[in-house]
Amino acid sequence: MSLETLDAVGARIEATEVRNQQGRLLLELPVGEAAEEYRAATFEIVRSELPRILAQAAGVDAIRLGSEAVGLEQGDGWAEVVLAAGDRARDDLVVCADGTHSAMRRPVAGTEGRRRSSGFTA
């Protein structure tokens, strides 16, 4: 997926501001500067549009809905998902969208990770 494609469907995030309930600025993060430094742009995309965008980029056959991922292996330029049915799916990008209680949290992050509310909503 090209940056031009992402520009067409989303908005680049140049800065993130954290404000209190009165609107006072508490923190500003220069996301755009980090994106330039690391050559990794950050985009805001409407969540309901993400499946369509990914299907267009990867092809419908590359998407597996309703498959239970139970493991993940990664190498140089590839990732392979181990599915509960016993088969595997390998590609250069894996998107796991299984929510806050993600089964992929440990394989991806290396830890279960303690979830906690930041108190912020968007």
Question: What does it look like?
Answer:
The protein has 122 residues and is an alpha+beta fold. It folds into 2 domains: 1-59, no CATH class; 64-113, no CATH class. The chain is 24% helix and 25% strand. It has helices spanning 3-9, 31-38, 50-58, 105-109, and strands at residues 11-12, 16-19, 25-29, 43-44, 69-75, 78-83, 88-91. The chain is globular. It starts with a helix and ends in a 13-residue tail after the last helix. The mean pLDDT is 81.
Helix content bin:
10-25%
* Rounded radius of gyration (Å): 17 Å
In DSSP terms (H or I, runs of 4 or more residues), the helix count works out at: 4
Q: What is the beta-strand fraction? A: 15-25%
Could you give a short account of the major beta sheet? 3 strands, antiparallel
Pick out the low-confidence regions: none
Inertia-based shape:
globular
Quick gist of this model?
The chain has 122 residues and is α+β, with helices and mostly antiparallel strands. It has four helices and seven strands.
